[in-house]
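Q: What would this chain look like folded?
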Amino acid sequence: MRVRAAEESLARLALPEAEQHLVIALAASDSAEARATILNNLGFVYHKRGKYDQAERCYMRAMGLWEQIPAADELFKVRSIGNLAMHYVETRQFDKVERLGLEVLASQLSGQERGRQDLARILSSLGALERSRQGYSKAEGHLNQALTIWDAVKPGSVEVLEVLNNLALVYEQAGKAEEALLCYQRAQQIAAAALRAADVRNAILLANIAALQYRTHRLAEAELSLQHALPIAESALGSEHPTVGTLLCNYGVVLRGLKKRAEAGKLEKRGEEILRRTAVQQGVLHTIDISELVPRSVSKH
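A: My prediction, written as structure tokens:
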């Protein structure tokens, strides 16, 4: 009952409510399998709320429980590792991603029809890992494989949108601005059909397009994109979320380039304070993996 209520809360992006339901369900559960499932989904909620330490602990506990269940489906164990990998990717803990053995998991899942979606998620994490190493050719390969899978099993879905966004980041960092723009344009077409205007994923697309506009010296366009992105993110995530902090810092960088120094300073100060409080490292004009903000329904993942 509580897990179902949490699923309904997640569908409405009511994360505090979902957290409450899952905490109660965890305390009441006496099944190891049920506890592993709840811990995994509680980790997801903690992550989306910016409670990263709690999220990691939940994912680790879920993995440990699946290992202790003799008859557990191997795919559930794989999914737990995949979810932890995504958490580490999205919090830029790439040293921990490297320890998870994702290449081995990808090889094991290759050719298995039942595990195709899990393979796509692991390939996305491998793409992000290679991007962090500046291995852009390998990153492109992993993400294009993931995109092929999602195009086949969920065409026009938010999963396709997610990979397109992250593939655009790789193209951009590899100096392929035109390819990046094509990915963003296709992602925006999917977003227009699949998302509400106020959905935070629209904000992330706009923010990343703004980063591309900034780097191609189209600062006025970048400012306009961020003007649209910031209120959507604040409304959806709250004013203290680390993603909002990142957007504020990005906005400040753009305004500084436009010689609007006083306004830039205010935004950068506020963004840096948010990131300091939430213990997120910030560089200059970060782009954002949209997977960090894509809600997934409660399941044994």
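Residues 219-237 form the longest helix (19 residues).
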